[in-house]
Amino acid sequence: MTLRIAMAGLARITRRSLEACLVVLVLTVAFAMVFARGAALTGRVALIVSGPSMEPAVSRGAAIIVEPVPVRSLEVGDLVSIRVGPQQVVFTHRIVRLVDGPDGLWIETKGDANAGPDPTLVAASAVIGRVVVAVSALGYVLAALSSLAGVGLVAGLGGILLSLIWALEGLEDPWSRPARPADARRPSLEPT
Which residues, 6 or more positions from 153, have their beta carbon under 8 angstroms from its beta carbon? Predict the structure, then answer.
């Protein structure tokens, strides 16, 4: 009998832990969706940082929100996302110098983790915007949710957690569960 009680207790603790994992998974996915869609609804852009050049300020895998700003409001020290080159590559670095040229404002940028500034000046018009929010590791979730395989993985993980929770409920001792009123256990056959 003691072993049965111990097994029921272990099943209950494990089930509660899995329930907590399922809640964290659901909340994380919901937060990622609100983060990305909320940025778009407010005229901002959500991006995923794929490199380590801005560590420790912004880590690889972080999700950032970039707010468009007027070129003349850019300042040294601003963390900005920039679109450059024929492939329109996007990177996020800090402005270290502003240069007024005959054809407009140019900026010199540098990654916080890099030894020196980037090799070329960039036209300030290439700036997508200033980083206003950075959430570490959320970019991995956003990347997963942007592919069919990732959505399948997240849904599969949720399904596995739910199946394990249901399986563990069957191992719990029926006397250890909270009692339900007799009326809730079986449907009444009496007409109402």
Answer: 144
CA distance 81 to 42: 17
Residue 82: how many CB atoms within 10 A of its CB? 23
48 beta partners: 63
Tokens 């996915």 sit at which residue? 29
Question: pTM to 2 decimals?
Answer: 0.74
| pLDDT in the model for residue 3 | 74
Contact between residue 128 and residue 43 where contact means Cβ atoms under 8 Å apart: no
The domain made up of 45-137 is a member of CATH 2.10.109.10: yes
Strand partners, 191: none
Instruction: Give the H/E segment covering residue 63.
Output: strand 63-67
**pLDDT at residue 129, as a whole number:** 96
For residue 183, is pLDDT > 60? no
Residue 123 pairs in a beta bridge with 106
Per-residue pLDDT reduced to its tens digit, 24-68: 999 999 999 999 888 889 999 999 999 999 999 999 999 999 999
Closest by alpha carbon to 46, among 143, 155, 112?
A: 143
